[in-house]
Amino acid sequence: MCIFLKIFWIVNLLYITGLRSCNISLTSNGSLFELGTTNVTLSCRVCSISYGITFYHNTEFVASYGLRLVVSNTTLYSANVHTNDKGSGEMNLIILKFGTSFSGNYTCSNGGSYHSSIALSHKVSVGSVSLTPALTVISVLPNVALSYIQCVSSEGRPAPSITWYLDNKTPSDYSDDVDLTGYSSSSTVADVTTSILTMTPSTNYHDARIYCNVSNGYGQIMSNRTLRINLLSYPTKPSIRFNTVLAPSSISVIKNSTMTLECSSSGNPEPSFSWTLFNGSIISSSVITFTVATNNNKEQILCSAASVLYPTNRLRIATGHTTVLTMNILNAPETPQFTFQTCATYSQTNHLKVIPGHSVSGSCTSKSEPSSTFLWTPANSGIGDGFFINNVSREHSDTYTCIANNKMNTTFSGIINGTNKSSFYLDVLAPAYALFIGNYSVLVNTTLSVTCPFKPGNPAETRLSWFRGNTSAIGSQQNLSLSNVQLSGEGYYKCRVNNTMDPTGCATKEAYEETIFYMDVQCSPKSSPFAPPITTVYRRRNSSAILSFTIVAYPPPNDASAYVWSKQVDGEWATLHNFDRFQTNISYDRLQTNLFISHLQIDDFTNYSVRVNNHFVSTEQIFVIRANEQPSMPQQLLVVDAMVTECSVTVQWTPGFNGGEDQWFMIGFKKAADETLTYINISATVTQLSIGELVAGTKYEVKMHAENVIGKSDETTVLSVTTKSVISSGTSYSQPEM
Questions:
Q1: Cβ neighbours of 406 (radius 10 Å)
Q2: Residues pairing with 376 in the sheet
Q3: Dist. CA 101–CA 103, nearest whole Å
């Protein structure tokens, strides 16, 4: 046999030599076959049978045709060959009674690399299908998609097919089951089919069951379990019943009455109930009994239905619903309360105190439900709940009464009338009234006695105070005595009468009235304390100065002739008149005079006086105008020729204006050939200086200026002088130069 195969392959190789391209195809009478009863025919068609044909199962040799037909195992396989006159042909391989060992890949080859393959397998009947999750009941939410339900088949060939159904709550009757396969997706891997159901449960799915069937041509097999759908639902909005009657959202009840209420709601699972009362307490029950104890006109109580939902393969959901019941609390009027607006504030009182001339407005209020209507006594003293009096007077003092009424329309007891009343007293206050006194004229050093007349107010207790103008009190009795009157005592005096009024809603008021009189004290003129004179004035030369004098006097001076201005010249006083640089004037009220001096000269820096008189006596005021500038340059600086020696020279000068301040002189000198001057400080009282320790026969330069605390003057022209020379005869000479 081995020798035959070797010879066969050699022959085939000889045939292969010089091969050209040729088509080859392998077909069979099926791909899946029953075990042990079926013969399978494989047909390999080639364009040229002369190249030979070889069959392989997986990679093992099965049969071939070259020089002759060869079959590896004739108990398992048979073969035949058909040719035609064109050289093409077909080799058939018959598998006898297909078994499990025959499954696999079959290939036919026409020499070289040309081949064709086909896969064969035996049929496997699917045996089961598993439904997950492995539960008997799944809890789901309405209208929420599910994608966790799946069926997995056992191995099967051909590929198993899975169908889905919803049992319509009739487990023993499959005819009305709903096909859900359209909501599934399937895939097959290694002859095992997995199908996932994606569905959105509706409300009518509750208690229905889901299952699947599998088949691959050998009949339907039902899933290993069915899933019952537990459709969860949120609690419905609770309803509240009063005595078994459905309560509206708002009811009217009497304050402090007792009520029994019931709360109901549906849902899956069954909700739990709780009440929240208006006092904040929480009661876990569907039925409550409580007392309507509140001071409010309206309250709310809440009924809550709550559930915890546990959907399969999801997080738990805590949910609930609440209904609010509004309760209108009815009650009769309480004792009326009075609120008054006075002094822009509000006050509650039964004794209203008001200042005359003020307006008072108020209201009568009473807590009730529904609101009350109001009546007043005396009649027409109020309108509705309001009370108003404009411009209160003493005649309005009286007792006033407010009556409150209401009608309570209860839900269960019909209409009930309620009433109550309260009174207040209006007490009109009044200040004390001061009467007219009149004015007084008094001579200096005399005594004045004055009595303050007044009329008591309400309250009647009255206090008196005397004042001079706006100063502190100078007396607290009804009579005022002013002794030894001086000019300083002239002015207005007032008597103040006051009492303490404590009006309702206002700050305590020290009510007072005043009566004023003027004490006219006749006296001589004097300087006004409100405009004291500036007695020393500082100016520069050629500037202007104004001297002003304001007086108080009674009576005032008659005219301008009552004022006389004077200037001190060389120790003597000279009267000034309006001329050239000097002008005088007086004010319209004749209590002020002014002296105006223009272009001040050196002799204007001196003392001035003004004298003024009225009918009684005269007064005088002294002024001084002082210079305030740097000094003038010294004048007439010259060398005293008679006093020039070999070692000294003497200079003299005339002092200039000192600028209004103490001055001193600075004299500088140097050799004509030197650059730097040497300065000597000289007192203002000196007008001649001898400069010593000089060199004989030497030319010197000299100049000077004046200084004070304000500054220094211009420098003088430089003088040139030559000291005397020493000669053998003992005589010397000098030559001053300008």
A1: 20
A2: 402
A3: 6
DSSP notation for 548-610: EEEEEEESPPSSGGGEEEEEEETTEEEE--SBTTEEEEE-TTSSEEEEEE-S--GGGSSEEEE
pTM score of the predicted model: 0.46
For 409-427, the three-class secondary structure string (H helix, E strand, C coil) is EECCCEEEEEEEEEEEEEE
Could you tell me the CA-to-CA distances from 585 to 240, 544, 550, 561, 625 in Å, in that order? 104, 16, 12, 10, 19
Q: Per residue in 194-244, pLDDT tens?
A: 999 999 998 888 988 999 999 998 889 998 999 999 999 999 999 999 888
Q: pLDDT of 568-595, one tens digit each? A: 999 899 999 988 899 999 999 889 999 9
Contact 41, 28 (CB under 8 A): yes
Per-residue model confidence (pLDDT) at position 112 = 65
Strand partners, 467: 473, 494
Query: Within 10 Å of residue 240's Cβ, how many Cβ atoms?
Result: 21
Phi–psi pair at 684, nearest 5 degrees:
-65, -20
Q: 480 burial class (0-12, 13-18, 19+ CB within 10 angstroms)?
A: buried
Question: Which burial class, exposed, middle or buried, applies to 665 when counting CB atoms under 10 A from its CB (0-12, 13-18, 19+)?
Answer: buried
For CA atoms 266, 267, 273, 275, give the dihedral sign.
negative
Q: Look up residue 430 and give its amino acid.
A: A
The two tokens of residue 282 are 């929480």
Q: Indicate the length of the chain as a whole number.
A: 738
Domains of the chain by start residue, with CATH: 2-122 (2.60.40.10), 129-231 (2.60.40.10), 239-330 (2.60.40.10), 337-413 (no CATH), 433-517 (2.60.40.10), 528-627 (2.60.40.10), 635-722 (2.60.40.10)
CA angle 294, 295, 300 (to 5 degrees): 50
Q: What is the rounded distance in angstroms from the CA atom of residue 78 to the CA atom of residue 41? A: 9
Give yes or no for a contact between 738 and 719, defined as CB atoms under 8 angstroms apart.
Answer: yes
